[in-house]
Amino acid sequence: MPHNCGFCDKPFGSSGGVKKHIATHPECRRKWESTVIDTDDEDGAPVDFTYNETFSPLRRSRSERYFEPYPEAGWTLREGQTEFERYQQYKEGEGEDKWAPFGNEEEWGLAEWLVKSLGQTKTDEFLKLPITQNRTKPSFHNNRSFLQKVDALPHGPAWNCKKVSVKGNRTDENGQLLQEDLELWTRDPVECIKELIGNPLFKEHMVYAPSRAYKDEAGSERIIDDMWTADWWWDKQKELPEGATIAPITLASDKTMLSQFRGNKSAWPMYLSIGNIAKEKRRQTSARATVLIGYLPVTKLDCFTSDARSLAGYRLFHHCLSLLLEPLIAAGQDGVDMVCADSFIRRVYPILAAYVADFPEQCLVACCKENRCPKCLVAADERGDPLNSLMRDPELTKEILERRRSGQHPTEFDEYGLRPVFKPFWANLPHTDIFLAFTPDLLHQLHKGVFKDHLVKWCLDIVGETEIDARFKAIPDYPGLRHFKKGISSIKQWTGTEHKEMQRVFMALITGAVPSRVVIVARALLDFCHYARFHTHTSDSLAALENALAVFHAHKDVLQELTVREHFNIPKLHQLSHYVLSIKLFGAADGFNTELPERLHIDFAKEAYRASNKRDYEEQMVLWLQRQEAIFCHTAYLEWVAAHATRRIEQEAEYNSDSDAENEGLDVAPGPVVSQDIIHVLAKKTPHPRQSVQRLETMHGAIDFLPALKLFLQKHLPHNQIVPGPQDRFDIFRQVVIILPPDPRVSELPKRLRVRATPEVLPSSSGRKPGSPKRFDMALVSSDAAVRVAQVRVLFKLPRQFGTYSRPLAYVEWFTPFREPDESSGLRQISRSTRHLRRNSAVIHVDEIIRPCHLMPKMGQSVDPTWTSANVYELASEFYLNTFIDLETFSVRVEWCKARARANRWSEEVELLLEEMRRVIAFLRWQADWWSERRSSRVPESTAEQEGLAAYACRQAALRLSLVASFQDLWKDVPMFVSAAMDIPLDSDSEDEPTIDTRPQLHS
Questions:
Q1: Hey, how many other C-beta atoms are within 10 angstroms of the C-beta on 298?
Q2: Beta strands per DSSP E along 245-343
Q3: Rounded mean pLDDT of the chain?
């Protein structure tokens, strides 16, 4: 049956086509929205929020969100054709198949492998092999003809080389000023943005208008993750014409070494991405959502004297970036019509929003000295104080630089710590505030800077390297956790991954070894590191981020008292004060991490350099990159063709089936239904079948396996008559994989975790196969509506003689319930649970295991020298639950803290309510006594008047006493209910049944 738009009567092949048409055509969408408002809003109240997953660029499973879309943004002008659609149309017109210029799918696969895996010399050798020429017989017979076919493929924007001449202040032997001629390799950034925003493969990850996201319909708690949910895009939209589409540009630059071990070859790549693409996609290097737009020249500037070389480098950098980004000036002012990923044309305004760089490069971009903050005007000697300094103003900065250029000496020039760069590249970029654009640098500012270079060093100075190393050696194993077997003092070169591995255990490791106030300082910084890594922020998490920094500043003086630190005027520490503002403006910090540019250096700089002959390598690098890009684009095109053909078949099947419901909603692309349950996965085939009970007791340490199994059978299989004994054999598993649903705060994908129960494996007699230690992991287990820690000893299935029981089982050893958190570290303490002087054990269902957890032994002031990673769980008696082991566990700790705060708040409310009820009774009794006294307080002139006054007073007293009786009857059970529900002890002085007159005392 035909499907027509109800507003313009345009025909479509399916209801899905109608939905897409209405969603992307402003006129039809406005008409549809008016009908929705008229239908749903009968009282005439404005509709501010909508619950619609189409606002999510990933269509991923998320917690419920309510969106407030920007009303006049992202309008479509008309339909267009993407590059893939035009290329497909061209091929069909030329009569070529999708594999052209290659002969078939197999030849294309060979070409793809050659470009990605072999250099030109090896490619030529391979193509000249007899087996290649006689059997494979490709259409290209040597490297030259092969590259001609590769160069015939479409690729991204072309590369250009611009000559930049730098005249120094040194002279040669003839008295002439020395000059250097440099090369600036560039691509048109506007064309690169067209390629990104029009890539059909990003269609499901693309957003064209800002929205504000909330957790509830009232909009009381804001949610911020991608740039389109933050404030910058929303505020900037107000400065542009109605219906405009902003392409928020993110630039990233970082100088990198190309040569290894010898040589000094360097490159300075400049990367570009846009905030329309979801940050999860931008972080995937294989998706090519971040593109290379230029190589800045790298030179020592020997034509300048040493005292002028630094300033000349500043000016050269800004001059080159001005040349590179010049096309953005007109495009940002007037907009450019671009075909977007959904095949519609929009008026796009590319505006520089964010700049990702390390601290020295931020100062280079901001034209300020490195002893100043590139974002704000804090004084050079006040960066260690929690101050709210004014942010730098681009217009004022340009004015000061212009006045300095004209020969004046403005006092602000020195006060602001500026460098005399009179033509900064950002001066003419429209709608750009370069100082706000600097985003948090998690790698250099947090992991390497504040944590490794400062916090770890402070603790090493207090405790000593020997003790810290011994503590690292005794850390228990955990799946995926790096074990520093030799400590950390001997490591000379660190990576960002190693910094994060240390953070996972550092809190529990130093607790007891350093003074409690130092523990508070460390906890504040580690809390800040973990909160800053959240993928999704709320008002609460941003408040927690600010609070962690405030706690640090409130207790940092202890480091000066211990003579560990003389001052806190640390640039990277000061940068933490700008994190909350940056997140509110541009979204979560994980979308702007400098780890991405450093990873891109491998693909866009180092590999390209290795493919060159190391002479005049820049030209060879861009040609190699262009060919790599051509192969990638053609691969993406083939994926798009296959997906397009699949969708066409599905649409035809839908059209022919005529199964569309008349009352379908207007969700354009509803997200997949993802189960929020925890999934437990065991091996399909048991790796250790028919294991004896004796082996479980000796190798797994399951000393009470049979008694625990008997109790389990009595509870869950009461009709079973078979008693388990030593003769029974069990199928044993090494591990269970637990798949947790996505937690939007820390991940957009399900989390796969392992809980292992493997005994020790001894080395082979020949010594060729090394052994492995025993690994019996700790886990959080759901037990009687509570969560407890248990050590998993055995994972097994019940043998058939006990009946059909499909659920796998686990033998575990319990730990005690959680005690109150440690005051300094905030870590919860537990110990092993015992019963009759034996470890308290039980058999449970595997699906009762929630997730693995990590316990750290309570080491005290000095660690026991006999403890090792392999035996510490057996030798230690007290443990901390390590909530810093990963972001998911840290989030659980956050929820615990919130629940505890809510419980305390409600306890206070209940106490106030009970006190108010008690005071009401007391007040009414006081009023009754007061009226009783009034009967004889006055001497009336007549007996009748005396009797009237006495009767009135008696009546008022009786009314108060009747209210007392009524309230006592209504409230008589309240204290008992409160005591039972909240475990509130009543006053021990009262021997009668509790009444509202007895005031409950709450736990502190």
A1: 15
A2: 245-253, 256-257, 266-274, 291-296, 336-339
A3: 85
